[in-house]
Fold:
Amino acid sequence: ANAFLHHMVRNIVGSLLEVGAGARGEDWIGELLAARDRTLAGPTAPAAGLVFTGPLYPAGWGLPGEVTLA
Structure:
């Protein structure tokens, strides 16, 4: 499961970078996720600079304060 999450995040970031650079439109991300085809996505982002600081969830979920959005 660790490798799946690791590569999933890098794959999503790579696609978001294409949108941010103006190479793809914002709607493309939704289309990409709906297609469920990794070959249509942007390149895998390099791991350098990507840091997972932790999850944050809506306050209404009743989770501990350290994982709750203010």
Notes: The radius of gyration is 15 Å. The mean pLDDT is 89. The first helix runs from residue 2 to 20. Residues 30 and 45 are 19 Å apart (CA to CA).
